[in-house]
Amino acid sequence: MSALTMDMPQNGNVRSTDTLGNVSEFEECEFSKLLDRPRPLNMERQRSCDERSLSELSIGISPRLFPKNVENSSRLTDHLDSTFSPGRKSGFNTPMSPSGFDPHPMVNEAWEALRHSLVYFRGQPVGTIAALDNSEENLNYDQVFLRDFVPSALAFLMNGEPEIVRNFILKTLRLQSWEKKIDRFQLGEGVMPASFKVLHDPIRNYETLIADFGESAIGRVAPVDSGFWWIILLRAYTKSTGDTSLAELPECQKGMRLILGLCLSEGFDTFPTLLCADGCCMIDRRMGVYGYPIEIQALFFMALRCALLLLKQDDEGKEVVERIVKRLHALSYHMRSYFWLDLKQLNDIYRYKTEEYSHTAVNKFNVIPDSLPEWVFDFMPTRGGYFIGNVSPARMDFRWFCLGNCIAILSSLATPEQSTAIMDLIESRWEELIGEMPVKVCYPAIESHEWRIVTGCDPKNTRWSYHNGGSWPVLLWLLTAACVKTGRPQIARRAIEIAESRLPKDSWPEYYDGKVGRYIGKQARKNQTWSIAGYLVARMMLEDPSHLGMVALEEDKQLKPPLLKRSNSWTL
């Protein structure tokens, strides 16, 4: 299966093609106009979107979420502004950070490396390359990945450079409109690409854009997380700049509706969570995350909440908003009730009865207590808890996943009490989850016979390597954001200091191997862009906590439904 391509002459004459003979819905020239359109940039970071409760959205809202001008937009209530409103440009010449330590010499080195990774299309920056490691075969590390670009985008936004983020949002939106096929099967219209690549031909004087929607990925799995990250990034851009014009574009509004249409459609599902294949997110290889992985559910929840702030209340958007509100209520209840694990819940599962058939069943998923792994009893502290990796009929994946739990905190999927418990767990299990390089992508590693069955003997995901318990520096920004939101910056500061002692001299690896992350990953690329950007975002957020507003949402009190009372029998 060939990748989709688009030929773009550098003289501005557009010729849109792909190997499937598709004619895109939006002509490239129209998107060029969007890129060139004048727009207000509120560099004083005025309030850009409101954090209204779901009750307000469900009982009636003004016809437009975003007023035409920033002055009117600032009237919208935004609870985050009081504590998390994005502030000044930071990163380069800060003499003393508010957190109490001097800027590290590696900050300038990191910025230089990040700028060196920029990718240009028709003379405009549109993203950052995955890695600049000339010692290894490129494979797909020479592409711009949507999920990988998120920390780069946040770094540029925090440094007062939003233009590249705007370009990236519009370019990936353009790619969404392409026809997408794997073999003879057509993907949904709303699917966002996993990555894209710019090919330059100086002889023919044009640039070709190649996008991958999963047809070139390992296992041929479409990226479920790409659309969620795109919505989250659109909200971060709007929150940071105060520029509501981008989100208000009809193309962006339609793009959000298409993404959400894939997730909110009715079917055979009995749960509000999303059913996914292995390899559909950051863990893009077979690792036993099929079903209802916590990473996807947390990103889904956050994308839904961000979309509520961005979608207009017009004829097309109103119905989507109503469906989002209903889904959020159901999703928050399901995740907080069934995915949450602490000492009490672990003990309850340990004592579960099985084969319960009624509406009052306690063991609703018929989980067999003997399936509890031995390690979880020692791993669970007296104070602490986390969202487990997966819940489905007769199956609970008790592994701890960093990204899903951090996003749960940032999106307020986790209640304040649960957020505190997650941070308590990280502190209590520092050696296991942080060790000598933050942060474990998941814990623990699967090995021996289980590894052979779950991964199919994957040589890259051996125990304590890569996605199987490897340590990923990029996750530092998520950990830091979660620490700042929960009022535990000392945890982030300690983790950043560990990273600073190793990352520059190790040439910014993609990941580390070993039980405590002592060794550079056996197949890790050097100069990995999101390792660089993740450090910068963590550093800037700790220096200026007001940056948290780009990626954090306050708890919505309306998402606390009353306990459900189930009757003992059906009544007709």
Automatic annotation (TrEMBL):
It comes from the Eukaryota. The keyword Phosphoprotein does not apply. Keywords: Carbohydrate metabolism, Glycosidase, Hydrolase. InterPro entries: 6-hairpin_glycosidase_sf, 6hp_glycosidase-like_sf, Glyco_hydro_100. GO terms for biological process: sucrose catabolic process. Its EC number is 3.2.1.26. GO terms for molecular function: endo-alpha-N-acetylgalactosaminidase activity; sucrose alpha-glucosidase activity. It catalyses: Hydrolysis of terminal non-reducing beta-D-fructofuranoside residues in beta-D-fructofuranosides. Belongs to the glycosyl hydrolase 100 family. Invertase that cleaves sucrose into glucose and fructose. This is Alkaline/neutral invertase. The lineage of its organism: Eukaryota, Viridiplantae, Streptophyta, Embryophyta, Tracheophyta.
